[in-house]
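Person: Please work through this fold.
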Amino acid sequence: MLRHSITRNTARSRAQFTFTHTKALPPPKEKSKDRKHQHLSSDLINTLINKLDAVESRLDLINKCQETKKRKSTGSSGDPPAKKDTRCVFCSASHAAINCTEYVTSGSRWERLTVLRLCPHCGRGGHAPKECFKKLRKCLHCQKHHLTALCTEQASESINATANQ
């Protein structure tokens, strides 16, 4: 049995590698064959060291990613992340689009959406409604494919409810 012990000092870490070959080398018959086995074993050691370096760098990367995820999910102080501020699609104030007091009617909301060139499915710009990833979202009132704040049936229901009072 042949045993090699190698110590490597790198900027990242200090590691000690011990390799054990379970197959015994054949008895030295000729010097040329003995040199060949020495060369093979040093090549094997170098290959293994390179593979261990690659594994070590991958582990470092995985650890960094996990630490970053922990910091993002808990925040730097360990507190849970703050709730995202809701912005109105129509007037950009800090309220939900359904509660907009500047654009009250569904007609004015549709008009504003057209002027701002926003998608009726998600309320964002930069894409056509056909390309929207939320194009299957349904209105809570009429089950059609648009933001609930744009619903014309909701507006007529609220007008009827006000008239009945």
Remarks:
- Residues 159-163 have pLDDT under 50 and may be disordered.
- Residues 32 and 38 are 10 Å apart (CA to CA).
